[in-house]
Amino acid sequence: MNLKEFSKKTGIPISTISKALGNYKDVSVGTREKIIALAKQYNYVPNLYAKTLASGTTSSVGWVLPLSFSHIQKLTLINFIQKIHSNLNAANIPVVMIFAKDQKQEIEAYEKLINFYKVRLILLNDIRKNDHRIKYLDSKGIGYITWGRCGKDPKSYSWIDEDIEYGSDLAVEYLLSKGHRKIGYMDAASKVNYFLLRKKFFVKSLQKNNIIINENFFLDVFHDQKKSKLRVKEFIKDNKEVTVLLVSSHTFATYAIDACRELNREIGRELSLVSFDADVLSTFSPHVTTISQPVDAVTKHLVKLIESKIKYMGKNYQFLYKPKLIERKSVSKIS
Fold it and tell me: Helix, strand, coil: what percent of the chain each, to 5?
């Protein structure tokens, strides 16, 4: 049944139907609910292509994936996209993904998503405190949802993020319960806001538990695996009093695993290891204790955020999720 036939069947003008199903404000709630009920009764589904021609946009979601990501980063993100794809597809919301090798290509990719693919919404990840992508999208008036928060007023945009303070407390309190007080911390050299907040709340958690902050126990690493692995090896050799490494990313945890293997340091016996994780490290050996994302809950709520934002672009939605501790065999108990 097309729009014209649905209008004739119900006796409701085409313009009113279009406005009601498009969530225009000049249609009353009662009228909108009535039309939605009739649409379900007569199995009427708006023609997405006709809607695109009329509005100049689609109901699709755009995502730019940097080629600079490591293999594990790409795998993690693509696996997550696969998880949300079927849910979005069922709601007639396709995902358009473009790869970009640098910042210039990234902006060109957003231009293509906006002007060629006519996407209605952009998804952003690896958010910086002052993010050039957000400034660009704000200048274009395009809606977006960030996976992580930036420096803007949290109520002024839509985002999904981890309760980073809760996760840091969870990690530190767990390690203290195992007797570890000399905690090494592997951090990212990049200025992604997630890592900045992770380090801030790790330090705060140490202070709350009256643990002396030792600057020598902090190590910055990069997405260059070979270079970073050498730094980790030097760190382990130079800081023999450190009994456990707390790693800010599952990507960097693989560097620590390789470094320990090359130094013949047995993880879980000679050196303990805990990592913040996006559900990837369960596939590695040794099995690493993690502070993990609740992937199913994140998937469910991100899909809800996308659906809500597409329907009501003028509103902002937020979801803060709590990570969970998954204990495996990488942490020993010391006296």
Answer: 50, 20, 35
